[in-house]
Design goal:
Elements: H1 27-43, E1 47-49, E2 59-64, E3 78-90, E4 95-102, E5 105-115, E6 117-123, E7 129-135, H2 136-149, E8 164-166, H3 167-172, E9 184-185
Antiparallel strand pairs: 1-2, 2-3, 3-6, 4-5, 4-9, 5-8, 6-7
Amino acid sequence: MSIKQILRMGHPMLARIADPVQDPASPAIAALVQDLKDSLAAVGGTGLAAPQIGVPLRVVIFAVPPHRTTGAPDDQPQELIELINPEIEPLGPEIALGWEGCLSIPGMRGEVPRPARIRYRGLRLDGTMVEREVGGFHARVVQHECDHLDGVLYPLRMTDMRSFGFTDELIAAGTAAPISQPAKVS
């Protein structure tokens, strides 16, 4: 379809709660998913949410590249997939601390605490339900993208703003590992 501009932090669309999709099988939602895929492919990254391209609907896409997994049994690679009207449920009290970046906050990263294991569910374009229990990077990317549907950017989840900064400065200082490193668990 087309490559859309990715909205940056400060845009009001990124601070609002997205609306549920009424007809996941509609041609308009298929076109939106294609726009998300085209836009993500143009800039790189592992996920994108509809609000990031100015569409206030509960649709995300994400992938889990093999080099980003932690090696845990519940953190497996995932080809690019869409989720429509996704839901997330934390599984247990364990919190994982990991570095995150965001296409809406270019050039910056921060260390974000998130539930280590989650169950997520959502619809695919063909109407099938996806439901998985995951951990590691897989859990992190799903939570990050779904936060966009609730108007939450990752700095709002951070508990120590000393671990927020420009990616190149954090790496040069030895504070953050290159993006290809998996999240650490605390």
